[in-house]
């Protein structure tokens, strides 16, 4: 397996735990971290022994506390645009990943860290988590999709408040507004995410992949076009061995044995 400068990858029971491993800089999304994340999703996590992914941060303080401010401060306008597009490509890859990606938010989740979490399919936060987009406090705007994904998730009003004020919200408020799916103690964070991933892995893998595609793509379409996509993917499911196994297992009152075919 490839060595990553800023990540630790552990795979158990088809669940990959990917830890952003730069606690000395609060797991900042510097250039090395961006490159490692792109590589791990393109190569290692695409392999068949991985069925679900959990993203978290090393240390007691941060999931990802933001981008590397020293790197940002040195950018000229063209370099800044290129950096933003690099972040967009990475997060679009994560958002469109065919296997479920769960963010285990274990602390500060700010700026680029918040944008990384927004690109994940599911977000679970520790009680101590703080989540926000503070870029305006630096004279910047969110550059890795935060101005677009946050309002799609929590609505325009709450997103405007968070983006324009630059203020963070705690885990309970994030849960109340729908930014995270659940809040647990720090000790229960990874076990809860593993439990959630294992539950998803018990389902038909092709159906899970098509669900991700239907939701992600459908949200960008008019309703009638989106429902046609859903119908097409529903039809594809009915051509799979997994659909035949799943329906027969239900009739036989037994657990299905899905093969991803």
Quickly describe the structure.
The two termini are 26 Å apart. The protein has helices spanning 31-42, 69-73, 77-95, 112-119, 146-154, 156-165, 171-176, 189-201, 205-218, 223-237, 241-252; strands at residues 7-12, 15-20, 52-57, 62-64, 101-105, 108-110, 122-126, 130-132, 169-170, 182-184. With 261 residues, it is an alpha/beta fold.
Fold and architecture overview:
- This protein has 261 residues and is an alpha/beta fold.
- It folds into two domains: 195 residues, 2-enoyl-CoA Hydratase, Chain A, domain 1, CATH 3.90.226.10; 48 residues, Orthogonal Bundle (Lyase 2-enoyl-coa Hydratase, Chain  A, domain 2).
- 47% of the residues lie in helices and 16% in strands.
- The chain is built from eleven helices and ten strands.
- A six-stranded mixed sheet has the order 1-2-3-5-7-10, sandwiched between helices. A four-stranded mixed sheet has the order 4-6-8-9.
- Strand 2, helix 1 and strand 3 form a beta-alpha-beta unit.
- The longest helix is centred in the first third of the chain and has 19 residues.
- The two termini are 26 Å apart.
- The mean pLDDT is 95.
Biggest sheet, open or closed, and with what strands and sense?
6 strands, mixed
Chain-averaged pLDDT:
95
**What's the helix count?**
11
The rounded Rg comes to 19 Å
In what order do the strands lie side by side in the largest sheet?
A: 1-2-3-5-7-10
Ends apart, CA distance between termini: 26 Å
Tell me the CATH superfamily of the largest domain: 2-enoyl-CoA Hydratase, Chain A, domain 1
Low-pLDDT segments, ≥5 res:
none
What's the shape?
A: globular
- Enter the CATH topology name of the largest domain: 2-enoyl-CoA Hydratase, Chain A, domain 1
Structural class: alpha/beta
Helicity, as a percent range: 40-55%
Percentage of residues in DSSP E strands: 15-25%
What is the level-2 CATH architecture name of the largest domain?
Answer: Alpha-Beta Complex
Number of strands: 10
Spell the H/E element sequence.
Answer: EEHEEHHEEHEEHHEHEHHHH
CATH class category label of the largest domain: Alpha Beta
User: What is the number of independent domains?
Assistant: 2
């Amino acid at each position: 397996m490839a060595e990553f400068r800023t990540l630790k990858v552990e795979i158990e029971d088809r669940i990959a735990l990917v830890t952003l491993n730069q606690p000395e800089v609060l797991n900042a999304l510097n250039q090395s971290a961006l490159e490692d994340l792109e590589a791990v999703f393109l190569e290692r996590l695409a392999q068949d022994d991985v069925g679900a992914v959990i993203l978290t941060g090393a240390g007691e303080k941060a999931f990802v506390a933001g981008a590397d401010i020293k790197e940002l401060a040195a950018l000229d306008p063209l370099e800044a645009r290129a950096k933003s597009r690099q972040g967009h490509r990475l997060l679009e890859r994560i958002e469109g990943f065919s296997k479920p990606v769960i963010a285990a938010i274990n602390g500060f989740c700010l700026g680029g860290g918040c944008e990384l979490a927004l690109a994940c399919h599911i977000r679970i936060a520790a009680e101590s988590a703080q989540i926000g987009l503070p870029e305006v406090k630096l004279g910047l705007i969110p550059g890795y999709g935060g101005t677009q994904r946050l309002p799609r998730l929590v609505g325009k009003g709450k997103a405007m408040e968070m983006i324009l004020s630059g203020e963070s919200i705690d885990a309970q408020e994030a849960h109340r507004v729908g930014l995270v799916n659940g809040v647990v103690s720090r000790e229960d964070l990874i076990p809860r995410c593993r439990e959630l991933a294992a539950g998803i892995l018990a389902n038909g893998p092709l159906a899970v992949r098509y669900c991700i595609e239907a939701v992600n793509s459908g949200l960008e379409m008019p309703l009638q076009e989106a429902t046609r996509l859903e119908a097409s993917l529903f039809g594809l499911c009915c051509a799979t061995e997994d659909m035949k196994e799943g329906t027969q297992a239900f009739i036989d009152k037994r657990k299905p044995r899905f093969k991803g075919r």
